[in-house]
Specification:
heterodimer, A: 123 residues, seven-stranded mixed beta sheet, four-stranded antiparallel beta sheet, 50% strand, globular, B: 112 residues, six-stranded mixed beta sheet, three-stranded antiparallel beta sheet, 9 strands
């Protein structure tokens, strides 16, 4: 079945780095744009980033621009989020999600989500 | 501050009808962008409930419906069930400074 499974979360000190992964299965990964969305403790959902199906375009929320980098490896059906210079306010559950649109379109909403991986930034 | 505003909580008894509002701005709903709704039970994957204002993905019961007019949107749930207890989020494209996608702050639905 269609599935997304995130991994790579953990505890890191402020200023540190972490790389999240999202393994896709059950669909043709290279046909879809992909998103990262996060949820801080006690807060709502916050969009983080999108990468196009062909990895030629990527966009970020202002809160992470310049610190986070999204990438994908279609040979491994895997989406990544490299997070550098982490701050305490980056503490959250990070979800990967599939964009609703199929190649070449992307619609900026999400029809398949993973269960998330937890990132905790603390000294 | 979110570009989409939702009430923090709503409640209803089993079998009743509830609505959840979502108020946008000229940068999102007022600019003509569609609204989408998600259901999220903590600890699980969020679920797309309504897309493009009033469309249900396969498998979502017709007890859930959506509407949009101008800068406002709403999600209606009829025949409330205990399993509907969750957090509900609206979402849209936003063309304001430094944003692409915005979510509402979320509404906690309690089934009494």
């Amino acid at each position: 079945q269609v599935q997304l499974v995130e991994s790579g979360g953990g505890v890191v000190q402020p200023g540190g780095s972490l790389r999240l992964s999202c393994l896709a299965s059950g669909f043709t990964f290279s046909n879809y744009a992909m998103h990262w969305v996060r949820q801080a403790p006690g807060k709502g959902l916050e969009w983080v980033s999108i990468i196009s199906f062909d990895a030629k375009n990527e966009y970020y929320a202002d809160s992470v621009k310049g610190r986070f980098t999204v990438s994908r490896d279609s040979s491994k059906n895997t989406l990544y989020l490299q997070m550098n210079n982490l701050r305490t306010e980056d503490t959250a559950v990070y979800f990967c999600a599939r964009d609703f649109g199929v190649i070449p379109d992307y619609y900026y909403y999400m029809d398949v989500w993973g269960k998330g991986t937890t990132v905790s930034v603390s000294s | 501050q979110s570009g989409l505003t939702q009430p923090p909580s709503v409640s209803g008894a089993p079998g009743q009808r509830v609505t959840i509002s979502c108020t946008g701005t000229r940068y999102n709903l007022g600019a003509g962008f569609d609204v989408h709704w998600y259901q999220h039970v903590p600890g699980t994957a969020p679920k797309l409930l309504i897309y493009a204002n009033n469309n249900r993905p396969s498998g979502v019961p017709d007890r859930f419906s959506g509407s949009k007019s101008g800068t406002s949107a709403s999600l209606a749930i009829t025949g409330l069930q205990v399993d509907d207890e969750a957090e509900y989020y609206c979402q849209a494209i936003d063309i304001g400074p430094g944003t692409y996608v915005v979510f509402g702050g979320g509404t906690k639905l309690t089934v009494l």
